[in-house]
Amino acid sequence: MFTSNTQRTALLLVGAALLLMAAVCSLLLGYTHISAATLISAIGHFDPSNTDHLILSTERLSRTLIALCVGASLAVSGALMQTLTRNALASPGILGINAGAMFFLVAASTLFSLSAPLLLVWSAFLGAGTAAAAVVLLGGGAKGLSPSRIVLAGVAISALFVSFAQGLLIVNQERLESILFWLGGSVSGRGTETLLPLLPFFLLAGLTCVLLARQLNLLALSDELATGLGQRILMIKILAATAVIMLAGASVSIAGLIGFLGLIVPHMVRALLGPDHRWLLPGCALLGATLLMAADVVSRLVIAPQEIPVGVMTALLGTPFFLYLARKRSYTA
User: Fold this and answer.
1) C-alpha closest to that of 106 among 253, 255, 249, 250
2) Cβ-based neighbour number of residue 323 at 10 Å
3) For this UniProt entry, which residues form the secretion signal (predicted)?
């Protein structure tokens, strides 16, 4: 673990450099390989008649930006949830928040024929909030949230909402392709016009995280300590939970179900930078975005010219890590 601020700053700069490298690879690699010279040419002198320039502007750029926003958001929301629940296995995917957002979004699209991006986003927020409330109710007890019960409740809620969404495949065959997109998880097929309405939510949630970083450090220790130091615990938890819902809901609305990123990244960053949220949260944003971009690039190349949904790639990475954490820690009801 790096303990000095100088070391942590240097590590974040390394993370930023890796993110830049992943972004360049995301722009260049795929079914059509594009040279670095072509990329530089497109930035300096865009030519709409050039096929490679069009691919960069219409497909690769939006795909890269979506992976950046979604990867950072899922990783940060996972760190927030682990702090709020004091549970190492907490993440939007494990506790069903992503599944709730996905089901409400699919239901709005198929049952009510909603197509406006903002309406779908608000549907995803409602689903994420509903799932979070259900998990808290089912996972709570006389002594508060139980680590084992909250994980079991999250898995049950996630399975329930995913099953409901799959049921819509039978009810509404016309929307089959779009539903499969949300179930599999993908950062492709969405333009920058889809991302732009979501940017205010990503930015607002990010600003909330920055403002709450110090309070979250106290909250991670104990409610009693934070209260004794004059912190308004309920307000901090509400704001942090709202940030989680915005980050997870917006991510699902544009990329579907991408699991395990919110679980594994906070642990990796915490091992390097420590538990201080002033360093943990930006580290999670950098590493989460980098990992999702890298997973997306691999998903394009592994069985080219076909693509594997990026949600499958993150599951392949995250499932062994989840099993490792579950075996390493003992949970009691």
Assistant:
1) 253
2) 10
3) none
How is residue 220 written in tokens?
Answer: 């991670």
- pLDDT at position 179: 67
Per-residue pLDDT tens over the stretch 173-204:
666 666 676 677 889 878 888 899 899 999 99
Asked whether the CA dihedral 282, 283, 286, 291 is positive or negative, the reply is negative
Instruction: Label residue 143 left, alpha or beta by phi (over 0 means left) and psi (-120 to 50 means alpha).
Output: alpha
Q: Which residue has the higher pLDDT, 232 or 171?
A: 232
Q: What is the DSSP string of 223-289?
A: HHHHHHTT--HHHHHHHHHHHHHHHHHHHHHHH----SHHHHHHHHHHHHH-S-HHHHHHHHHHHHH
Taking only the tens place, the pLDDT of each residue in 283-324 is: 999 999 999 999 999 999 988 788 888 888 888 888 887 777
Residue 332 pLDDT? 43
CA distance 226 to 232: 8
What domains can you pick out in the chain, each with its CATH number?
5-328 (1.10.3470.10)
Transcribe 133-144 into DSSP letters: HHHHHHH--TTS
Angle between helix axes 199-221 and 233-255 (nearest 10 degrees) is 140
Helix (H, G, I), strand (E, B) or coil at 191: coil
Range 166-172 contact pairs with CB under 8 angstroms and sequence separation of 24 or more? 168/106, 168/107, 168/110, 168/111, 171/110, 171/111, 172/110, 172/111
